[in-house]
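TA notes, week 10

Several of you asked for a full example with nothing omitted. So below is the full record: structure tokens for the whole chain, then the designed sequence directly under it. When grading your own attempts, check the secondary structure regions first.
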């Protein structure tokens, strides 16, 4: 391998066409194992229903939790599920497979293909079973907003969708950084466990973390150092009409997504410079 692991891309593929091919191949794989596909859908549906019943029981005993009513919280929960579903469908299978590409030497072929390496290792496999799960949180979001009886304008819709995109971008960036460390560490299963442990904090609104020194510390760290709370809470607050505190917090969310995407790409290509071919 040359000192630069990223070969010149002489050809310029149509990325939309390549993504469609990845989607078609993923559908073929899923249909080859229909039983597994159906089991995944049923499992995701059961988990969704369990979450819904659990929080319904909580809000059956209290009118609100730290300023969040039942329907507002359902909108928040749906927002988090939408972001997680998109991550699990598009990026998690590929990032989880990155260390396997290194172990088997198949990363050599990815580097030699006339297409952006990050695009290839990020989108090659799609989890359509997880993607089908998107119907449930979208339905829950529609139900929650209907119960709130709050008029949703075009600006709210655009802001919400844009902030959802920012959330997906940030979590993808975090996952890509963890996947890139496979080049240095060989196996990074512990880092993926770190991913699940750390993102569990984003399952609850940002305002929940407060009222004590430890809670305030968690809210600060996960809002401004590793802003996993912002990328879920802010879009939910926008769509339910809650006041954003502070008012400029949306800009922090957008900046976190942009810096995360830039930083993760830099980390990926820095790691690739340390990669040694399976044949070397």
């Amino acid at each position: 391998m040359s000192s630069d692991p990223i070969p010149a891309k002489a050809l310029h593929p149509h990325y939309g066409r390549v993504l469609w091919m990845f989607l078609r191949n993923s559908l073929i794989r899923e249909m080859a194992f229909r039983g597994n596909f159906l089991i995944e859908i049923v499992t995701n549906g059961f988990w969704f229903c369990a979450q819904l019943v659990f929080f319904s029981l909580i809000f059956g005993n209290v009118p609100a939790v730290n300023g969040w009513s039942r329907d507002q919280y359902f909108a928040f929960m749906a927002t988090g599920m939408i972001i997680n579903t998109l991550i699990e469908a598009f990026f998690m299978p590929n990032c989880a497979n990155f260390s396997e590409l290194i172990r088997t030497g198949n990363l050599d072929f990815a580097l030699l293909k006339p297409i952006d390496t990050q695009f290839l290792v990020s989108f090659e496999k799609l989890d359509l079973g997880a993607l089908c799960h998107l119907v449930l949180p979208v339905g829950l979001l529609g139900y929650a907003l209907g119960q709130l009886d709050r008029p949703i304008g075009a600006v709210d819709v655009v802001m919400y969708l844009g902030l959802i995109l920012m959330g997906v971008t940030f979590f993808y960036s975090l996952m890509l950084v963890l996947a890139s460390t496979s080049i240095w560490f060989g196996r990074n299963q512990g880092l993926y466990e770190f991913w699940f442990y750390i993102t569990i904090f984003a399952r609850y609104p940002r305002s929940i973390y407060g009222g004590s020194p430890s809670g305030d510390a968690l809210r600060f760290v996960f809002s401004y150092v590793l802003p996993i709370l912002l990328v879920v809470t802010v879009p939910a607050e926008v769509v339910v009409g809650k006041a954003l505190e502070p008012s400029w917090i949306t800009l922090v969310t957008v900046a976190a997504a942009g810096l995360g995407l830039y930083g993760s790409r830099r980390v990926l290509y820095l790691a690739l410079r340390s990669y040694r071919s399976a044949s070397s």
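Confidence is low (pLDDT under 50) at residues 1-11. Use that as a sanity check on your answer.
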